[in-house]
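Shift notes (night). Ran Four jointed box 1 while the centrifuge was going.
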Amino acid sequence: MSGLPAATWRLLAFHMRLLPPRTELPASWPPEDRLPRHPTQSGGPAPEPRFPLPPPLAWDARGGSLKTFRALLTLAAGADNPPGRHPDDRRRHVPAGLPEPAERTAVHGGVFWSRGLEEQVPRGFSEAQAAAWLEVVRGARVVALDRGGCGRSSNRLARFADGTRACVRYGINPEQIQGEALSYYLARLLGLQRHVPPLALARVEARGAQWVQVQEELRAAHWTEGSVVSLTRWLPNLTDVVVPEPWRSEDGRLRPLRDAGGELTNLSQAELVDLVQWTDLILFDYLTANFDRLVSNLFSLQWDPRVMHRATSNLHRGPGGALVFLDNEAGLVHGYRVAGMWDKYNEPLLQSVCVFRERTARRVLELHRGQDAAARLLRLYTRHEPRFPELAELADPHAQLLQRRLDFLAKHILHCKAKYGRRPGDLMVLRGREGLGYE
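Came back to this:
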């Protein structure tokens, strides 16, 4: 598909400069049980947050139809030392007046990552691995439970009789394990399972065959008998990840594409592949209302202007280069309970993205059209984890909120396609059973 004429890009850039300035928000505080790592100093008022927001979104009186969207076309601004970039990669400089092949091959239709670029995204975890892990956990005998290596102090690193190691996550309250499990199955429903480690559930029974050899360790861990825990395979050789340049500025401002593809053209393939994965992450965290990853960093900008230059919490890179979304327990259940506090960060972060993986967009629009996201999610969960029905009960307000967030995201995708699509008639539409089509 041919690129936009330079004149059109200049017109787009001109109109974006005319957008009204964004306002600053007063400082807000996180839930008491999830305080950020960098608290403000005592003895004075908290500083103003440094993450500016767009004007409020306008909804019609019926509460469902989005009337206006202030979406930014965010691709990549150059990064000095981006994560995951190999030392032998070099930026490609395209002299003025010459064609820009990288821009054409990186994006098609104005808002979709190219298929060629998507094919370069590391494979990550597969459906076959997920099925195999379920079988491993169900038949495993735990022979050791060690501290460290799996996040919170209540978690443990388990070793099975066959030598396999797993992170066992024990929730301070049941909704954390429920959020972890349902976030995992939502990722599978969206086709994002490659980024989320295979997960299986188990019940703590000190005298049961699975745990009988670690009764002493169970007592030391103070785990409640009969509680449900999640087990994911322990992943060695993970590395930290720093957010890409568009979300990394010290003033907290999201960086839109400001000219005719110059920033995108000069990015290496490794950087572009990273951006494909990051756009999926931002969509996923918005849908689950997960505040314990990039959103937490945005909140911390008010007292730590360099936080975006450091490792992102609960996000790592595997040896093959795929991003790994870890510790999703803040999603869906607990995240929905406190969504009103964190959406002032989550929504503008979502609106900074107007380029998507096409397959992800298809899944979102199908769930929007069907208006049955919670039912489909719980069916998928129950099919794989029938022994733990207590976690398959998503409260009606949370089920409705999941659908509303999917509807909001679908409208955002449609808005981006209408605004930035290559051809005036190239609009994404929902048509019967076809889901996503073009006119």
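The mean pLDDT is 76. The longest strand covers residues 228-233.
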